[in-house]
Amino acid sequence: MHSADAQMLVLTVLADGPRHGYAINTAIEELTGRKLGPGSLYGALTRLEARKLVRPAGAGGDAADRHRTMQITDAGRAALRAELEQMARVSQAGLRALGTAPA
């Protein structure tokens, strides 16, 4: 899975509320039928946190603590919304081109 895809999945499940790594991966599996590998999941969280799109929820937990509960930030919600709107436009255009969606 591409790292941008993993990041989008993480943001999507965190938009529903704060979660720790295992719960994030469980929600992703429920959504997609596949789990992310630890490197993909924690790599995505690290990149998203560096971009200030997610942050630890509450106090405690250092950067190496995989049991930290993470939450989406306002900037993360805005980035997720923009990406999902773009994906919807592409999806609609593709379905129209295939003749399976109204013009």
Q: What would you note in describing this structure?
A:
This protein has about 100 residues and is mainly alpha-helical. It has a single domain (about 5-95), classed as Orthogonal Bundle (Arc Repressor Mutant, subunit A), CATH 1.10.10.10. Helices cover about 60% and strands about 10% of the residues. It is built from four helices and three strands, in the order H-E-H-H-E-E-H. The chain has a three-stranded antiparallel beta sheet with strand order 1-3-2. Helix 1 (about 5-15) packs across helix 3 (about 40-50). It starts with a helix and ends in a 6-residue tail after the last helix.
Helix count, DSSP H or I runs of 4 or more residues: 4
Low-confidence stretches: none
Radius of gyration: 15 Å
What CATH calls the topology is: Arc Repressor Mutant, subunit A
Binned, the helix content reads 55-70%
Biggest sheet strand order reads 1-3-2
Question: How would you sum up the major sheet?
Answer: 3 strands, antiparallel
Number of domains: 1
Specify the CATH class.
Answer: Mainly Alpha
**By CATH's scheme, which homologous superfamily applies?**
Winged helix-like DNA-binding domain superfamily/Winged helix DNA-binding domain
